[in-house]
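Appendix B. Extra example for self-study. Work through it before the problem class; the solution is given directly after the inputs so you can check yourself.
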Amino acid sequence: MSDLVSVSGLRKVYPDGTEAVRGIDFVVRDGEFFGFLGPNGAGKSTTMKMLITLLPMTGGEVTIAGLRLGVDDRQIRETIGYAAQDVSVDEELTGLENLVLSGRLYHLSHKDATRRAEELLTLIGLDDVSSKKAGFYSGGMRRRLDLAQALMHKPRLLFLDEPTTGLDPQNRRAMWDELEKLNRDGTTIFLTTQYMEEADTLCERLAIIDDGTIVSEGSPASLKASLGGEVLTLSFATDDPEALRGLIGRGAAALRALPGLHEVREAEREVIANLADGAHEILPEALRALAAAGVEARIAVSPPTLDDVFIKTTGHALRHEEGKPTRWKFGARRRGRR
Amino acid sequence: METARVTFALFARSMKRTVRRPIFLTISLFQPLVWLFLFSQVMKTFAKAALPPGVSYVTLFAPAVMLQTIMFGSFQSGMAMVSDIEFGLMDKFLVAPINRTAILLGRTLADGARMFIQGLIIVVLSMSLGVRFVHGVQGVLAALLLAVVFGLGLSSLSNTVALRTKNSETTLMVMNFFLFPLLFMSPALVPRQALPSWVVTVGRVNPVAYAVEGARNLMVGIVEHGALRTSIDWGQLGIAVAFLLGVAVLGMTSARFAFRKATA
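Solution. Structure tokens for the complete assembly:
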């Protein structure tokens, strides 16, 4: 696969001196489903806003479909579709009118725009409410309408900024199906997300971004494999903080003494350790050691998740915070810039 | 040609938004009704002494209400701009492969059309109150155009404030802060003969004064030497047109700059 997007040394320093993106390199291949995984404030949205020509970059080189960002912006805009983190639908217009307007912005004739809009409305299951004002739509319906707006001109590259943030599980699942289908049909997709599960389910390849830097990159499977082996978790039945702290301390100490376990970490309510490859045989030993230390715990062994990758590479857990999206200059009042 | 089509699409969108929102009716109908029916009732006794015999207050007041409606409706433009920014619609327009001038131009054209309609409603209301337009349809149309030119200057200024503050309350406040004093220091509410002399002096640089007198000139005639002059005072009209065109050009230029700066 050839590279549809290639980014090198991309930086963004805001006028107030905040360095939101600290010189990152990555590529998105033609036809790929690529993701940026990271917490709020990591620089995901800032990166995306630069790539879609909304925010000038401070430094670096970007080409999109062979076009140079900062030079061929107009042609880049023709090539790409974008759905923002906050849906951008006009609440006073109907679903159909919103789509037709989007089509007109991409130079479709009124007739072609209407035809395409009707096709998309059927596809996203909004055809029966197409003549209702978008202001009456539910959150999930708005998201779908917003996605359809970005698809009016059949872009070969789709940028989605946290496409499921704020959606309930059912709507999220439906959106995932939609996106997978689009990707199968040939659209290259670049999305940002703060949800492990989303990155894991959708992305062929992803970059973990934290504090403006890409900390690791690869397929979800290879990222997880890089941790080596499986993950052992001790959890405890007590709710008493004092007792819990004691159990965590003694449990961790008992595990540290065992060969075949590495990186034993004390979490808030659990002890987590990485199992060396094929180290299942030490489980009975671990049980004995814990019993000897007087630690009563539940032991679970599971394959590593992206969560584990995230903690390993960034040194902290990924927390979800809803609703603090990045905006460019315009958003300064309603939302804090990240 | 492409730009013209996109401009039209954005114009049509702004118009749909305008007529579908209840604020449009409030500003275009309810407020002027209060001014025309209630305020003129209260004022007519006071104003009588300053008016030439046989000239009713409402006759002189009607062009002013038309102008006021357009003036105070002009901020809708800046507030809609803030709303577009907040709802991400501006981003949607900016990532589209269009000439960005179309974004501002479509909005301005819609503002002009909206103001024209709002002004026209007042004209019809005034006729129902017995106001006679001495220069007929041409006079009324010319007065509406003059008021719209002034209104476009103001709506552009409201866009400038909106783009700089990104806050609709601030936009409303800043515009009111300037427009109310300008209104009170003009012969809009009180006949010029009843104004203190310093206000008349200030009126020489007050665009609202030029707009009101210009509109009267074209619609009902202006008071001169203790009588209503029923032929057009071309001298006054010429200065008013030049002055208000100046305001419009200034407003639009500042909005263009603010827009460029915000979207750079």
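Self-check: Residues 321-338 of chain A have pLDDT under 50 and may be disordered. If your reasoning did not lead you there, revisit section 3.
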